[in-house]
Design brief:
about 75% helix; single chain
Length: about 120
Amino acid sequence: MVEKFWFKKSEELLEIGKKLLNDGYFWHVCFSSQQSIEFALKGILVKYKGSFPFTHDLGEIMEKIGNELSVKVPENIMRDCDFLTPHYTMSRYSQFAEYNKRKAEECMSSAVEILEWLKKNFNI
């Protein structure tokens, strides 16, 4: 049941992101949103396949889930994954990217949408 570690961390990262949004740490909201999804996706692969790829590319991980578990991933979910992926790196080097409340809310919204879809389709 090692996947439970991944799912718990995913939920924690989302909750941290929500708190940080209220506190104005917008770059960290985007980082936490990306990480929340990465942990959830890797947890699904651990649960059903026993391992996961060593990448932070959410689209790549989601495609792997779709292909290996024969699940049709909706386009909006793939777009959300592609939107969140760069925030793993960009947010931590935010002198090159501006983070504001609007962008942070977009990241959080994308993460919530993906997690809802994952919960519905994978009972996590």
